[in-house]
Amino acid sequence: MSRGGAGVQTGAGRLRVLFVHGQESGPQGTKARLLAAHFDALTPAMDTRDFEGCVGQIGRAAAAFQPDLVVGSSFGGAVALALLQRGLWRGPTLLLAPAGAELGLELRLPEDAWVWIVHGTRDDVVPIAASLTLARTGTPERVRLLEVHDDHRLSATVASGRLVALVRELVQRAGEPARSAGDRHLRVFFEEPALWPVLAAAAGGLASLLAWLLATAFRTRHPLLLLGVTLLAGTSAIQVRGDWRGRRPGLLGGALLGLWALGAALAVVAARYGIF
């Protein structure tokens, strides 16, 4: 069993990572040593000939160590998946080319679990198709599949430092307040480049409509238009306040603030040149 000592500081102290190694690896493997160099990491040595024994061993280790995150690689990914399915671990989990199907596990993630899966497109040991199936289960906004141009060992991902960054990012994301439904739906457009033109067109149309409403309401002083502006502003303020994250708004709140800023700017230009 290997325990790292350097670690990094988080809000509650040093980040604790439980690493579940692969079938041909161990506490002195590359990933285990990397995690130990950056976090308070625990890597129990397992007898990978006994899958059920490993699941029990890691379940007990998780209960005793109380990690912030479990990372499972290949065989260890299958062990981590079994822990999730049996309710022995419910925290954030990073699965690296998990070999769940090869070990007879159902390709299913429990609801509400934070699980990110990293799989190499050049993996010739564990087919990526299994991870694609696994990523379609669980709670969509908490499950993420990262397809990387890498081999089964994820050598380039480890060497580049991206594995360390993913550990930090997943723990941080899992610790954020739950997002609203609007935030989740909007994030789909921001994270998919193919949808950016749709997002830009929608933002432009809404900003133009808002600009017309603002310019017309303040030019005509029409009571109903002024009431509409007041109601829209009040509703937006409530949404932004509810979506606030620390010192800044979340995605939905930021989008609303940006929409109002653009709409107000267009209204000023429109009033100046008599467009509306």
Walk me through the structure:
By secondary structure, the chain is α/β, with parallel strands linked by helices. The protein has helices at residues 30-38, 51-65, 75-85, 128-135, 155-159, 162-175, 181-191, 196-220, 223-242, 251-273, and strands spanning 2-3, 9-10, 13-14, 16-20, 40-43, 69-73, 93-96, 115-120, 143-148, 244-245, 248-249. Strand 8 (115-120), helix 4 (128-135) and strand 9 (143-148) form a beta-alpha-beta unit. The protein is elongated and about 80 Å long. It starts with a strand and ends with a helix. 32% of the residues are buried.
- Identify low-pLDDT runs: 5-12
Strand fraction equals 5-15%
End-to-end C-alpha gap = 72 Å
Give the oligomeric state: single chain
How would the global form be characterised? elongated
Mean pLDDT: 89
Structural class: alpha/beta
Total strand segments: 11
Largest sheet, strands/sense/barrel: 7 strands, mixed
Helix fraction?
40-55%
Rg: 24 Å
